[in-house]
Request: fold
Amino acid sequence: MAIHTRISTAKIVEKVSSLCMDANFILNEDVLKALTDSYEAEVSPVAKEIFADLLENAKIAKECRMPICQDTGVAVIFVEIGVGVEITDGNLYDAINEGVRRGYKEGFLRKSMVSDPINRTNTGDNTPAIIHSEFISGNCLKITFMAKGAGCENMSRISMLTPADGKKGIIDFVVETVKVAKANPCPPVIVGVGIGGTFDYAALLAKKSLLRPLGTKHTDPDTAALEQEILDRINKLGIGAQGLGGWVTALAVHVNRYPCHIASLPVAVNIDCHAHRVKTVTLS
Amino acid sequence: MSNIVYLKTPLTDNIIESFRIGDKVYISGIIYTARDAAHKRLVELIDNGKEFPFDIKNQIIYYVGPSPAPPGKPVGSCGPTTSYRMDVYTPKLLEKGLKATIGKGNRSETVIEAMEKHKAVYFVATGGAAALLANKVKKADVIAYEDLGAEAIMRLEVLNFPVVVANDVYGNDLFKEGIAKYKRESS
Reply:
């Protein structure tokens, strides 16, 4: 395989560091639009005021380069490696972690990682990042950073349904997940749904579905209709912004589907909060 | 119709009893921060009959782990964390005289009952409005458990810190009322 692009680890460190900061300070346009639309659509005065607060907060965060939310999250990184890319001067994973380390330090972002789930000592630099990598064709290296807060991550669920549960079972499980989460995941939420694959793969499908820009329709009409059906059901729950009652409980529902075993129907629901912090850079 | 209240800390029973769910309250004065790890330590002190690092009587605890203070600011972004994780500890602190907590999300029935019993309220601040809320903090000092980093106990001096009464001393719950009001068809 011929190498067409050489990318240094120093460049990766620098780019990842910037992604960490920019994602935590600057809310993307698609999220701002969803919040503005929700402000218009909401009928509850309490919830409407919350949307106004969130838009004001985004403005302050951007202007002052302050984190949108104090929970600056686990650094979740998706990296797509073109087969024609050679990483020079070191290891890709080490470079990503070094970028996270620097970004969280320089940006005064909160360090929320503990080194062990039981003994719980803070690692002090927000590493390790959770890194998902895959090879793609071409000569580019695409890095996507997501700051994933715990409030919403903690309300995520997975279920191994039976094929007989079908579409109705899937919809009921997703809606129930949002319903039992109530105010805890910081609604309005973005609901990522992974259907199919295996136990582990369904969760990854759900998380990856969150990366799709808000306000875009799924390319598969059947999946787009399923997303709309789930969204309508969720927004009739009445949970509303911060769970204090209202018409807008979710900003979007995103679904990813994948082939699975004849006996399986895995469904994973990964919830993200309104502080939906995702940034991407492509190196070539 | 809900009220707008400008509150000066510390709290008194009279003020507490005047609150109703849905009231918008702007807090000025002192509040203390504590979240998961600090709560664990405070309750261990109670269990071992030891003194607290601050006088909790009539005080307000804010569930928050701020981001680090950038140069020139007393504190970094500081929105509320999810309250239910503190539910297991809260009744013991209310028994010690704590009068209010600030967080986000629902409280357990046990905590709601304990608030009725000890005359305490639960305020919610807007989760994720962390930069906006940081602007309401004028001074911040770590007073205990510095080793816990973002989870250390801080004494915050706040000015017009905006919250909403979610649970009052009469057993009312704004979450339940709000959802009942805005729910559409059965699901």
